[in-house]
């Protein structure tokens, strides 16, 4: 097939439906007519003019085969990509590459000289650390991949590139360490991603939804991470990372619920401190989810459990309230959810004003007006603080808290016990790529307890966890084993 | 039936909870009514028998579960029908006792019938999800159990009279045997475990969990009864739900019910124990009547209506101490032993398939090298 430069150029222009940001430039390379296409704003123009356009315009001859000739003439870090399919050619231009058509050539040519503005690397808003790396992922796939590769300088780090989205053509990188991650897990994830048929992928959460086993569950079934050090550590345990172009959130699978309680800093401080903070986190979440429900249950049904002095204080406060304990707590919860939603969405300049409105006007005035009691506001405040001690589990914790309040209102503590049992049973039914969401508690894997409730010293963790399927158990060779060898 | 493969550790947890959960609620007062301060000795005898039977069940399911064992079709139908009948009776007792425990611990004798529906909903969900979910929930509950026991041990404070346990058998063993016979229905909790199956040996080399569970069962139950008698003496006969009452003897008493979480944890375990009985019932029912979901719906509706109309610990006691217990006793002891004989006969008759033999040889070789 010999390309007719004019016809193909017009066809290319037409395939972009007359978009104004498609730029076309016709010129000659020696005695051959040529045209280049690119999307305005996605091209490094300086590089294009200096290393591609100028050498091409000034060259005296262009001989077959063209790819080799063009590689000799131009100065680019990446070799010219040669395409025979017209659709692939237009897709590459849409993705930001420079497309070239040369009269009587047999293929289309693609130069990779993309350049567009990206957000600089910064510390992510959640999971901040006092000691430890502060880098966070940004929205660029290549930058994110580089951040991971800088930490894993091994040829065993394998990156599989996939494309998802009919219109978005989003690049997705599937990363694992060969010889550590289980090949079955990698295969399972790859196949699931390949099966996705969607018009566009805007964020990695789209992919996460497709990878989850139970779509309507309130519990996360895929890990989300904003920091390369965390992703690296997870990959070293045998997990697979999924980086989606355009998203600063990197997914990891398999996932277990207890990952939510493992903060990055646990691994950078001494183990007693890590154990303490981890226990506090678990306790905080427990209080966050159950406390409002228990408060309702104690008032509605099991009031005799409370110590007398404590009960007197509550009685004094709730005397004359127009609502039942259940309605009162629901009202306070709804107040909080409105405040929470507003504080995230509203402009930062009015954030201070909102705090005043939330804390003083709504809280204090509602108490003074006799609509809600002070203990109810206190319980909710404590509960909310507890929720944000484990930010990765905040979504499900908020829903569970509401559920437990309703159950406590209907059945008291019995309702809470039933709720806990139901959640427990439900979680044991969810699998995440070869592991169970509740592992290593159920099924019981005592080997992995060194990094669950307690955090062992890093020098003692010489094996990878059993929870995550992997093909190489050895993480570290101990000193005495070295000596034996 | 699916996902009924369990590891030794899981069997140990199942056996522990299946056996101990309901023996510390109403049974202490029932036993004391018939054999007084010798109740602990009666429990020692019955628990020895119970542990032996748990061992028999373990040996049986190490090969195959009840429904997978090869035998004549008619014989299997007869055995499963008996197991179904036993499970129905046990189901009534277990459900009523659990509901009574929940009601008396949490609601001061309120309208428990409304709570029954919520309870049955959760039991249905867990039973429907299958054996794996029950086992895993029990594994989580084990942690809660350990935490609750630590809380009890740390805060326990009571003036115990060791003299209360003595004298030992002043009127011979007759009263003890009478109590064992009368309350037999509160024993023989190993039947639901026949529906599980152990994973192949070479994949589960855990050796200590089952002996540990058996020791735990014995120590917990007999220790609990000794403690109970030492605290209450002859008055123990008046104490219902012994476990909850014992939680009152703690340093935390001044804070009124700080050990309430322990009671809540025990309620959770009791519900799981109920699920285990209903699981056996469902599996036996499904084998007999083929369709699982309709069988489950009918069974659960039936139990709910029965408990709604005629519920309460009195019903459980009346059924548990009636002549039906002799049928239950006969089935509970004969079925595991019969299955053991059948599996042994079957193992002798049929040569092992080559593949299994090879795998076993390989495992043995690997173990020898390791040694």
Descriptive overview:
The complex is a heterodimer of chains A (485) and B (371). In chain A, 45% of the residues lie in helices and 12% in strands. Chain A has helices at 5-15, 45-58, 66-73, 86-94, 141-151, 183-194, 204-211, 228-236, 271-300, 308-318, 325-345, 351-368, 374-387, 394-411, 413-429, 479-484, and strands at residues 22-29, 32-39, 81-83, 98-102, 108-111, 157-164, 170-177, 223-225, 240-244, 250-253, 431-432, 435-436. In chain A, the strands form three sheets. A five-stranded antiparallel β-sheet of chain A has the order 1-2-4-5-3, with helices on both faces. In chain A, strands 6-7-9-10-8 form a five-stranded antiparallel β-sheet, sandwiched between helices. By secondary structure, chain B is an all-alpha fold. Chain B contains 14 helices and two strands; from the N terminus they run βαααααααβααααααα. Chain B has a two-stranded parallel ribbon with strand order 1-2. In chain B, helix 3 (39-63) packs antiparallel against helix 8 (209-232) and helix 3 runs parallel beside helix 13 (324-349). The mean pLDDT of chain B is 83. The interface between A and B is medium-sized, with 29 and 35 residues.
Present the secondary structure layout.
The complex is a heterodimer of chains A (about 475) and B (about 375).
Chain A: H1 5-15, E1 22-29, E2 32-39, H2 45-58, H3 66-73, E3 81-83, H4 86-94, E4 98-102, E5 108-111, H5 141-151, E6 157-164, E7 170-177, H6 183-194, H7 204-211, E8 223-225, H8 228-236, E9 240-244, E10 250-253, H9 271-300, H10 308-318, H11 325-345, H12 351-368, H13 374-387, H14 394-411, H15 413-429, E11 431-432, E12 435-436, H16 479-484
Antiparallel strand pairs in A: 1-2, 2-4, 3-5, 4-5, 6-7, 7-9, 8-10, 9-10, 11-12
Chain B: E1 5-6, H1 8-20, H2 27-35, H3 39-63, H4 73-106, H5 112-129, H6 131-155, H7 174-182, E2 197-198, H8 209-232, H9 242-246, H10 260-289, H11 292-310, H12 313-320, H13 324-349, H14 354-370
Parallel strand pairs in B: 1-2
Helix pairs in contact in B: 1-6, 1-8, 2-7, 3-7, 3-8, 3-13, 4-10, 4-12, 4-13, 5-10, 5-11, 6-10, 10-11
